[in-house]
Amino acid sequence: MRTKGSDVLVAALENEGVQRIFALPGEENLDVIESLRKSRIELVLTRHEQAASFMAATQGRLTGAPGVCLSTLGPGALNFTTGAAYAYLGAMPMIMITGQKPIKSAGQARFQLVDIVGTMRPLTKMTRQIVSADSIPSLVREAFRVATEERPGPVHLELPEDIAAETSTASVIPPHQIDRPVASPAALKRVVDLILGAKRPLVMIGAAGNRPRLVEALSDFVRRTQIPFFNTQMGKGAVTSNSELYLGTAALSERDYVHDAIERADLIITIGHDTVEKPPFLMGDRGPKVAYVGYVSATVEEVFHPDAELIGDIGTSVSALADALHQRVKPDPEFLRLRDDIHAHINVRADDDRFPVIPQRLVHDVRSVIPEDGIVCLDNGMYKIWFARNYRTTVANTLLLDNALATMGAGLPSAIAAKCLNPQKRVLAICGDGGFMMNSQELETAVRLKLDLVVLVIEDSAYGMIRWKQAVDGFPDFGMTFGNPDFVAYAVSYGARGHRIAATSELVPTLQGAFKQGGVHLVAVPVDYSENMRVLVEELAGR
Question: Domains of the chain by range and CATH?
Fold first, then answer.
């Protein structure tokens, strides 16, 4: 049977297991929208294309299968670029589908015409214009293959309006199992020899450690080898922080308390580290050796240049390492003493009652209301460093932060995607007042979807991280402050509920009440960032 290209597209997406598409469509997408209306795929209408791309990327991050987003041509497609970079640097599988004018005629001349395929080329793993309805099944299959293979990332397909309407008899192409390559025995032996030759080996778990399929293998590796470990910001939770071998998170690049352990190590075994993350430590001439375990070979940087590499499926590699080491590694007892010291330092003032709330207390109180499997989605701001340092994670992918592109505006859209995927779990978005206002319109999306979602907005009326850096560098306080709306009234105007914290003791009961009541809640809390200078500059500099 002959059917429209848009029907072929939707059938191909269904064939890939797509259950929802985040979209802000235009007239060039109307055939696709009609095909979606007749499909089993949920259409999640967003209020901005950037938010749709953040949602799709987050779905890819949490599931390992590409999230899908849809926009129109020109300005709509260009609004995907930040989300494309977010997914590209963060290794999140995502498919972006954009519309375009008819390519077989030019009835509107160059109105709204932008080279989106060219724009997307440096931001994606693959970008293609679909020029024939017959090619849709193969292009969709290829898009999903490319998006999910290591290193995962975004793929872009442009569907012109006339190709969407063109008829075709093409059939979908079923996916098939693809096994990942495994590391060679010679590479395994080199890394095993390095570990057995080390007196104080230490494991670092990076962003790829949080791939959904990898968590069990990593936990088993740590349990069997008994090598102490720490993690990068995006590696948090891949192995539970309740482990007696857990030393902490490298939220900074140097001089933090966890770096006492890093400096003591004579070998660091990095598992799944990606140098797009801000460096968790800086390699130097006299520092520890580094063994790298990854899906793909390490990118050599000035601050990261491994001495040995084990390339292949990480789950298979760490299992083989554990087998080969066979409990022959004994943890340095000094690491375990350092663990207690590190954790004691980062928990100082977690019970401080002063108001506005200080970051340590904020992290402590959020942790107390979020179950172990609850999900916290951070936007980008000064508070991200504090959550990376102080928030204890026991389940993988329950603290979603971006330490790659580190873009503002992603916190609320990411939380919406996380809640769509996990309707029974508590999901909390944490945003600074600057980042929140970049995509605050998605409150309406959350209300329309009838989500049970809480949004914590941290108020300092400034672009706080840049203001702090401005002060650290000795510049005058200038150009970083702004005014805010009445966040309670703002939430209510969207049909959500709004709350303002007037004392630190109100934060926990307000958050608990919001979760128990259900629906969308915004909780505004003023923050005192004076601890940034006291702890992250003065205290660490004096060590």
Answer: 3-168 (3.40.50.970), 185-342 (3.40.50.1220), 347-541 (3.40.50.970)
